[in-house]
């Protein structure tokens, strides 16, 4: 849950570069919490960051399938 909470804070601050770094770190550590990644992607879309949301979800899908 820490990932989703941290991500929500970054989205609220509109710090999308830091969010991307957090996302990538979480992918390397543990991509299995799919719900947290999806919630974060939905929050990005609400913040009008659809392209970044789609890109990060694609990366998650690729990483999840590899592991």
Concise account of the structure shown:
With 67 residues, this protein is mostly helical.
Question: How does this structure look, described?
Answer:
Helices cover 82% and strands 0% of the residues. It is mainly alpha-helical. The model has no long low-confidence stretch (mean pLDDT 94).
Following the backbone from N to C, one meets helices and strands in this order, namely HHHH
How many E strands?
A: 0
pLDDT average, as an integer? 94
Percentage of residues in helical conformation: over 70%
Q: How many separate domains?
A: 1
The gyration radius over C-alpha positions equals 11 Å
Q: What structural class is derived from the secondary structure elements? A: mainly alpha
Question: Low-confidence runs (pLDDT<50, min 5 residues)?
Answer: none
Number of helices: 4
Show the helix and strand layout.
Blueprint: H1 2-12, H2 16-29, H3 34-46, H4 50-66
What descriptors fit this protein?
single chain; about 70 residues; mainly alpha; about 80% helix; about 0% strand; globular
